Amino acid sequence: MYKEAKVLQPPSGWDPKVQYIDKLVWSPNVPETIRLCFDPPAAKKGSPAAAATLALQTERFLSDNVNVFGNAFPSVKEQRRNIKIKRIVDPSHPCCGAYGLYAAQTLQPKQLVLDYLGFVEYKGYDPESDYVLSFGDNDLSIDANKAGNEARFCNDFRGIGPGPNVCFLNYLDESTRRIRIGIFVQNNVKIKKGEELLVTYGKSFWSKRGIDMSNNHHSNHSQSQQEQQQPKQQKQKQKQKEQQQKPSPQGQNQNKRKGKKHS
Questions:
Q1: How far is the CA of 243 from the CAs of 166, 236, 247, 253, in angstroms?
Q2: How many C-beta neighbours within 10 Å does residue 202 have?
Q3: What is the C-alpha to C-alpha distance for residues 118 and 141, in angstroms, rounded to an integer?
Q4: Residue 31 belongs to a domain with what CATH number?
Q5: 41-50 long-range CB contacts below 8 Å, 24 or more apart?
Q6: Disulfide check for 10: which of 14, 51, 102, 188 has CB 3.0–4.6 Å away?
Q7: What is the pLDDT of residues 65-83, one digit of tens each?
Q8: pTM (2 decimals)?
Q9: CA distance 87 to 90
Q10: pLDDT, tens digit, for every residue of 144-161?
């Protein structure tokens, strides 16, 4: 556990082996200049510190690392009102016996639902972790294996629904200049209260684990999900810059789960 990690009281259904946190925890191995690009300190607009952040966040950097721009994003506390984790009891569900992430209220198209939190690592991550997301284009990743929030419960859509209704996107809060990974509702999708939030991990994620996804079915997935009670991850770089506070088109420019690291 890194020194700055503050462990909070977890919600019902939380895995007791995992630390519950409400902000990213940065590894001391992350170079200071890279961290300042993603997580600058609070600064007044027009101050020297704010100017320094803008100098680091060049147009090229933002193009490579940000999908969504805006300044009216909800706080982490407000985000938690959007969701709840629930044990899955439907025997036809491929993750029956495990947990899933569900809407606690109606969620609108393109809405930011919840940040994806964990340990921010640099040039490497735990090869045994199934909870790693690529974080931009600077060799950063977020690992929610040992610490995270409710976002780590988001399951893959295969065998559950016709397609994903949410996606992972990097977003920039223009009021703080901080970059985060968020779960966003897909374009043209409204999620009703009680519906499960589903992403796509990508077929390569499953193939690296010896699971054939050619028929869009994961019959072998049930056991592993029941053992871990959490979602998994596959790497994808994010390359497209958005000019408004909206996710990219459905099925495009979405973070996917990282597969286990291969030499």
A1: 20, 21, 10, 14
A2: 21
A3: 9
A4: 2.170.270.10
A5: 42/176, 50/177
A6: 14
A7: 999 999 989 999 999 999 9
A8: 0.80
A9: 9
A10: 999 999 999 999 998 898
